[in-house]
Structure formats: C-alpha cells, structure tokens
Amino acid sequence: MPGARVAGLCITNPDVEQLIIDELCRKFDAGSDVCELGQSDALLYCECENCLNYAGLRDDPGPHHGEQRWVFHRHIAERMMKERPGKIVHII
Fold first, then answer.
1. pLDDT digit string (tens) for 15-61?
2. Residue 57: is it exposed, middle or buried by C-beta count within 10 angstroms (0-12/13-18/19+)?
C-alpha cells in the first residue's frame, strides 16, 4: 500500500527485550553454555519515535540500524551476565 509504514522489531519495547531474555534463559536452562543473538538480513526496522532516537543516533548521517542493533544486543548480553553468570551470549 503506497505510503504505508511497515515496522519491524521494536527494540525499545520492554516486552520485546523481555521475550529475548526469556528465550535465552530457556536455552541456558536447557543446558546450553553458549547462545547466539542476532537478527536476520533484510530485517524491517521499526520506525517508532523511540527506535529512531535509540542510542542517540537519530542525528547521525546515513543508516544507523547496525549500530542500534549492536547497542541493543550488547545490552541484552550484559543483562544475561547477571541473569545467567558464566553463560556466553555470542552476538552475531
């Protein structure tokens, strides 16, 4: 539909973050020592105001989605260090 906005994963939604944390915890609790964390190519990026401002990158020239994902994934990995010490989150 012309002019329609299509939103992808909203990385600023706390429910999305918690779903990712919960899934990593399930994997670790099932016996995994290492879990990969990444998002597929051709991902649609959320265009909500919070996501556009995420990580203070709104005024950066050019695409900044990769940097946003890195900051988000690092935040998840840091949370998992507290949730499941000794386990490894491999950011891909």
1. 999 999 999 999 999 999 999 998 765 567 787 888 888 876 666 65
2. middle
CA distance 33 to 89: 9
Residue 86 corresponds to which amino acid? G
Beta-strand ranges (E) seen in 1-92 are 34-37, 88-91
Its pTM stands at 0.79
Dihedral over Cα of 11, 59, 89, 43: its sign: positive
Look up residue 65 and give its amino acid.
Answer: H
Is-contact 58 71, C-beta < 8 A? no
Q: Which two tokens stand for residue 46?
A: 């959320």
